[in-house]
């Protein structure tokens, strides 16, 4: 496989929705004709277990990679990271039409002081992973054009690195030899055993577990304190991790609601913020207008407590309400000066909303 050849993996939607299947198949058919692309199809990323052939294939890819799925790009990237498929986050130009105005508003916000994120664990390979959301367009041409742009970007980045190595590499002029070990021209190709049929083997079943975005996580451990089902733990250097994902209760995103940095993702949850969408902030705290206008979302902490109590009762245990695992920033909260959110709520109250 050439160093400029980019692996593209299309992750199928769960189920057999005809429009989704048609979009996936059109993208794959178009990319089969591209000389700089190696395209494969795998089942839904979120459902792939550690022994599934599709996941083993993704783990075997060493170079730059594009993954198309029916998940938000942030969710897909950190889902791959938790599976040991690591790389640098590749920025994409393909966005949903509504994102333009929202991005402009987010960029205009005044930065706020926040604790530093702990970042991903381990060594990050010198490659980029681009994650595209198949819900951003219903035209296969949009994805093919973006993949071609990414391939060109990867090729130029590698060429720039090669020029930099050549410029910084001392040479023995008399012999015409370089003192440094030359870079290999090729990267290992995925194993030949990964046939299309093996890649598309049905996963064992639908799964439900949290994914941690370590670019946001500050290791506050509030999720560990709040979850009473043993899902979370810490590693040898006290970093939070998902330790027992099968202990997570299907459909319950309570721990995500109490995370102060919105670092816990449930990729297939119905709420965009919990599913991994990029969210704006005011004063460091995301404002959900449906809560302010009396929608059915309710207060995040109250919703989290209710969800946790429901799952405790379903498991034959006693509900604990607010007595266990309440975030320290909520318990014993001292009344201080009003911030931007307080003033916004007061203004809405004054308007009779």
TrEMBL record:
Extent of Acidic residues compositional bias: 99-110
Iron as UniProt keyword: yes
Segments forming domain 4Fe-4S ferredoxin-type: 208-237, 238-269
InterPro entries, alphabetized: 4Fe4S_Fe-S-bd, Fe-S_Ferredoxin
Residue ranges of the region described as Disordered: 90-122
Signal peptide: none
Keyword Endoplasmic reticulum: no
GO molecular function, one term: 4 iron, 4 sulfur cluster binding
Keywords: 4Fe-4S, Iron, Iron-sulfur, Metal-binding
Top-level lineage group: Bacteria
Protein name in UniProt: 4Fe-4S ferredoxin-type domain-containing protein
């Amino acid at each position: 496989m050439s160093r400029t050849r980019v692996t593209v993996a299309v992750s199928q939607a769960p189920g057999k929705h005809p429009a989704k299947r048609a979009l996936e198949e059109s993208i794959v058919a178009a990319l089969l004709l591209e000389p700089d692309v190696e395209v494969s199809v795998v089942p839904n990323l979120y459902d792939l277990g550690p022994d599934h052939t599709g996941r083993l294939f993704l783990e075997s890819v060493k170079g730059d990679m594009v993954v198309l799925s029916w998940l938000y790009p942030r969710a897909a990237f950190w889902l791959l990271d938790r599976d040991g498929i690591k790389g640098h986050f590749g920025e994409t130009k393909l966005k949903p039409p509504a994102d333009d105005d929202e991005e402009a508003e987010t960029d205009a916000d005044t930065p706020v002081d926040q604790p530093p994120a702990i970042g991903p664990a381990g060594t990050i390979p010198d490659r980029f992973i681009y994650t595209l959301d198949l819900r951003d367009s219903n035209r296969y041409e949009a994805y093919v054009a973006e993949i071609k742009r990414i391939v060109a970007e990867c090729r130029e980045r590698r060429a720039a690195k090669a020029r930099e190595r050549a410029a910084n590499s001392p040479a023995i002029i008399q012999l015409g030899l370089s003192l440094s070990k030359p870079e290999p021209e090729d990267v290992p190709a995925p194993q030949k055993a990964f046939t299309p049929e093996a890649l598309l083997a049905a996963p064992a079943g639908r799964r439900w577990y949290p994914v941690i975005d370590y670019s946001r996580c500050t290791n506050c451990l509030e999720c560990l304190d709040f979850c009473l089902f043993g899902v979370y733990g810490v590693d040898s250097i006290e970093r939070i991790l998902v330790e027992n994902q099968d202990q997570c209760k299907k459909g319950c995103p309570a721990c995500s609601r109490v995370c102060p940095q919105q670092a816990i993702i449930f990729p297939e949850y119905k709420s965009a913020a919990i599913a991994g969408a990029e969210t704006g902030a005011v004063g460091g705290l995301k404002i959900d207008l449906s809560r302010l206008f009396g929608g059915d979302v309710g207060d995040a902490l109250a919703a989290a407590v209710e969800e946790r109590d429901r799952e405790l009762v379903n498991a034959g245990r006693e509900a604990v309400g607010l007595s266990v695992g309440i975030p320290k920033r909520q318990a014993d909260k001292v009344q201080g000066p009003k911030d931007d959110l307080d003033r916004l709520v007061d203004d809405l109250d004054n308007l009779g909303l």
